[in-house]
């Protein structure tokens, strides 16, 4: 009898398990199922959940749907159902976001739509992805400019698509219709790059003739990191921020997809940074014609992404936000007692109070980085038997010695005849936490009559002469400066624009006054222009053109140690005047 009961219990258990397995099979295809069956099941479950308000409230139900579409993708990663699965993964996350209200869900949805557009730009659902992304950017992520560009892309690039009428209506509602169409049509570059997705004007690359990511380099400190991706040709790119995933120990990530490109032979798959901002830099071939670079953040920080030309490179600046970097506690004044609940405050107007305020404002002037322009394979301007790179280096060392004699800590971008990329020079200053950055150059002009001293700070170019000089120092065609101006409007938000302008004025005025005591010197004034070497600097930064190498008289003087000494003394006077000015400001 006991044996009979045992058999019945085993039979009942077996039947129960079979029934439970059958229910699971009805809800989700077996692992060996085809991509089509997974997609059909996922499609059905998705729409059933959308129409069931009670079940739609639970995150777990949406995750089940997401798992089915993920299985579809795994069953055939490059098959005909892959773009459809990615689209519905985006729709699933979007619907979940509508109920959770979490921006992370909407960002994940955007990521899925991005993947469709990156891998399947000609698919029939590509315009749907653009429209859905635009809706999220406009309504949920407060990125209206990018939404306008996405809608304009539908109108321009998918004129026969079923989303065009909706895109036109939405773009008219958002405003700036003509501007957005003009940007996408290629009449001018977008005025502002956004973190969701960015496409740069570029030549078209096919899998048979891709561009190559040749170099990934970085300059880093605990407060700042600059990552540079150097390619052998211009490409379209897009970037996206992904939220952390604690389940797999993934931090915030920023990925950059380089379309129409492949990894170069010398690029390492992963680089550990561990600088307090970034954990690592990873590279990989995301698809046949797309290279992906991923930055793993230790913490989510402020960042900026922008392209530079000749050679083509994409620059990613990562900053520690104010107030989140370690600060060394100031030593207590031995002449004043303090308690745990009180802080000594120097008398108002005293030098001690000024020093304290300058520290807080980031306006101290202790460390100065001097950049000798050009170098190595880049000679700069050549005329009258002189090479600009040699004069720059000689003068930089002379100036540095005089500044050290005044008590400043001086660091250099180069002290020998070596080539340093322009974007690395400012990065070195940021990493060294320099208080001022001075880039030394000699000028040149087709007219040999032109001579004089001029000092530049970073801003939009306002004259043809400023455009010409910026193009020469940046080693680009002057026509490229107009594109750079759009980029600069975004980069200048946190730059020391006013401080740099004041520094330039002090250096120009004091140098002219000092040199004119011994030599006639044409004062060409202070100007503003978008110089690569000044872009992204966290400190007041200027570029000094110490003379025209193409002018025979001035070239002769630039050979003279005595003349260079007068120039250096004048720049030192200018820096001291600037330092005195900000100290007076702090004491008032």
Quickly count the helices.
18
Strand order of the largest sheet: 14-11-15-18-16-17
Q: Give the oligomeric state of the chains in this entry, treating copies of one chain as homo and distinct chains as hetero.
A: single chain
Uncertain residue segments: 1-28, 187-203, 323-357, 478-490
Main beta sheet: 6 strands, mixed
Please identify the structural class as seen in this structure: alpha/beta
Radius of gyration: 30 Å
**Overall spatial form:** elongated
The proportion of strand residues reads 15-25%
| Overall strand count | 18
Terminal CA distance = 102 Å
Question: What is the overall pLDDT average?
Answer: 78
Helix content: 40-55%
Structural summary, described in words:
Strand 9 and strand 10 (313-319) form a beta hairpin. By secondary structure, the protein is an alpha/beta fold. It has helices at residues 2-27, 35-50, 53-56, 59-75, 82-100, 103-119, 126-139, 144-157, 164-174, 177-185, 351-361, 388-405, 422-431, 464-474, 480-491, 497-515, 552-558, 561-587; strands spanning 211-220, 224-231, 237-242, 253-259, 261-263, 270-272, 278-287, 290-297, 302-308, 313-319, 367-372, 382-383, 386-387, 409-412, 436-443, 453-458, 523-529, 541-548. It has a six-stranded mixed sheet with strand order 14-11-15-18-16-17, sandwiched between helices. Strands 5-1-2-10-9 form a five-stranded mixed sheet. The model is unreliable at 1-28, 187-203, 323-357 and 478-490 (pLDDT under 50). Helix 5 (82-100) runs antiparallel to helix 6.
